[in-house]
Amino acid sequence: MDHTNSNFIRNLIKKDLETKKRDHIVTRFPPEPNGYLHIGHAKSIVINFGLADDFNGKTNLRFDDTNPLKEDTEYVNAIKEDVEWLGYDWDGLFFASDYFQEMYERAVLLIKKGKAYVDDLSQEEIRQYRGTLTEAGKDSPYRNRSIEENLDLFKRMRNGEFANGEKVLRAKIDMSSPNINMRDPVIYRIAHATHHNTGNTWCIYPMYAFAHPLEDAIEGVTHSLCTTEFEDQRPLYNWVVAECEMEHVPEQTEFGRLNITNTVMSKRKLKQLVDEKVVDGWDDPRMPTISGLRRRGYTPEAIREFVKETGVSKGAGEVDSQMLDYFVREDLKMKAPRTMGVIRPLKVVITNYPEGQVEWLDAEINPENPDMGKRQIPFSREIYIEQEDFMENPPKKYFRLFPGNEVRLKHAYFIKCEEVIKDAEGNVIEIHCTYDPETKSGTGFTGRKVKGTIHWVEASQAIPAEFRLYEPLLLKDNLNEEEGEEKDFLDHINPDSMQVLNGYVEPTMKDVQVQEKFQFFRHGYFNVDPKDSTKEKPVFNLIVSLKSSFKL
Ligand code: ATP
Ligand code: MG
Ligand code: MG
Q: Which residue ranges does the record assign to the Glutamyl/glutaminyl-tRNA synthetase class Ib catalytic domain (predicted)?
């Protein structure tokens, strides 16, 4: 199902092409390199690249790097890697900072036209003078400086004669506009800082609202797609393009942000989780970052399908994280080999099985995809089962192992629990069972039935493995409030978001590669961790469990 087939942005582009308003389309994905991409960005990526693809257009990857204080080359590289991993190729790769000279010249043009002025008010004073929704703004005492004086002061700002915050350049628009964004917005500020791309060439930097429309115009972007919090800035966007006399006129259209339950979706908050060591880096598998999702084991296909299913609309609203899980299960169902792993091991000795004997059993690699063939797994006198598959005093309807009861070992035999071995404190440390050779899997045995089938791993050839089980990072929904009125999301961290367990996997897992994905029988889908896995001890990250009540 592809809901992006018809949406208001697609319809707009179609109309623009039909009416010949445009003869081609250019979109852009414009991240600020001040953090790693999250799944919200994936939505913007899918929309921008997807629409351009559908209309034979082009999409640029543009780093919106106009703030030297927060940006870093580490983020630039991570963003490129993530966009490629999601499956997209950009046409042009640009840095907004490469346009600083042109932006400067356009600002000078505004001054010459009497459309911009240097202001000496402080940031706080500017805020006070700006007024409110119900109260008009007040003119700055510097608003009527002469063009000559403004040109001179702006040049001196650029030459580094003033300290940070001493002066700004403001657009001269309308202090009584009902749209506060139009009340003489600041378009340049002083920042004596080293920029990741331009070094120390500049000490004045354009503000987003001035820079972004110019970037779009310079690159020939036709449809500048952004999220709805920029809707109020659209008049300013158009003002900048027009007053700066840009030859190409891009147009801004807004769509609703993607938010997901039980997580936060803002680079600033995600950075806080990293800086305060709540998580182990941007690519921690609990993070909603693209790199975190990749390390957890989500696939690009699942992320793209999920994002498409959320649709394109003006509205925001939270999407249930279980919907993403649904798509990764769908994607892995046919692809991921089945295997058995014991996460909390309990030793079982099969007392009537000959000592020293090992037999190899056939097991299908993926019953839903028989083309994947078969694997061979060993069976012998000692195996591991899951602790929770045994109970000494089971409740009613417990069909797994308990004294006197018989269960099926997947791909192997029926075993019956004969004896429970305990340590001095009374903890169960071993189960003694007998097996029935008649019941071998695949022989068509129908003599009697058992109600439980459990998984297991043969002990002598078992490979020790670490399992990392994950739960949501945050215990509360609606933590994606607009900036300013947000709740303290750090109060809602789930203390049990990761559980690390040591168990065993089949010897067929001897040569697993990082990022390989498996379905562990009865447990769920797991990914081989790319950072901490070793040849001796693989680490498996739980992607999703098998069952869900979620319905699409
Ligand atoms: P954040 O608040 O997480 O830092 P941002 O909007 O400041 O996000 P940018 O790097 O400026 O981050 O975003 C690049 C593009 O991705 C922008 O066009 C932005 O609108 C879009 N984008 C960011 N977050 C989301 C989201 N949750 N849903 C859809 N698009 C998003
Ligand atoms: Mg931004
Ligand atoms: Mg932001």
A: 25-333
How many angstroms separate the CA atoms of 151 and 490, rounded?
Answer: 47
Q: Confirm or deny that 32 is annotated as ligand binding.
A: yes
The answer to whether 317 touches 261, Cβ cutoff 8 Å, is no
> What stretch of H or E contains 214?
helix 208-219
Measured distance CA(139)–CA(441) in Å, rounded: 86
Taking residues 112-134, what's their average pLDDT? 97
Instruction: Among the bound ligands, name the one nearest to the CA of residue 229.
Output: 1
Helix and strand numbers (H, E) in the chain are 12, 27
223 labelled ligand-binding: no
SS3 430: strand
Element (H, E) at 301: helix 300-310
With b for 16 or more beta-carbon neighbours within 10 A and e for fewer, the 152-178 pattern comes to ebbeebbeeebeeeebbbbbbbebebe
- Surrounding ion ligand 2 within 5 Å at CB are 32
- Amino acid in the structure at residue 145: R
Q: Which CATH superfamily is domain 338-461 in?
A: Ribosomal Protein L25; Chain P (2.40.240.10)
Domain with CATH 3.40.50.620 in the chain: 3-255
Q: Tell whether ligand 1 has an atom less than 6 A from the beta carbon of residue 258.
A: yes
Query: Does 437 appear as a known binding residue?
Result: no
pLDDT in tens, 383-430: 999 999 999 999 999 999 999 999 999 999 999 999 999 999 999 999
Query: Helix, strand or coil for residue 377?
Result: strand
The finding on whether 253 has its CB within 6 A of some atom of ligand 1 is no
Asked: is 3-255 a CATH 3.90.226.10 domain? The reply is: no
Encoded tokens for 71: 């940006």
What tens digit of pLDDT does each residue of 448-504 get? Answer: 999 999 999 999 999 999 999 999 998 876 555 544 445 588 888 999 999 999 999
Tell me: pLDDT of 132 over 80: yes
pLDDT at 303: 98
Q: Which residue has a Cα nearest atom 1 of ligand 1? A: 266
CA-proximal residue: ligand 1, atom 8 (nearest):
266
pLDDT per residue as tens digits for the range 320-373: 999 999 999 999 999 999 999 999 999 999 999 999 999 999 999 999 999 999
The whole-model pTM stands at: 0.93
From the candidates 58, 106, 158, 257, give the one annotated as an active-site residue: 257
Which residue intervals of the chain bear CATH 2.40.240.10?
Answer: 338-461
Question: What is the identity of the amino acid at 177?
Answer: S
- Alpha-helix runs per DSSP H in 20-95: 39-54, 73-85
292 lines ligand 1 (CB under 6 A): no
How close are the terminal C-alpha atoms of the chain, in Å? 11
User: What does the radius of gyration of the chain's CA atoms come to, in whole angstroms?
Assistant: 31
Instruction: Select which of 167, 170, 234, 267 is catalytic.
Output: 267
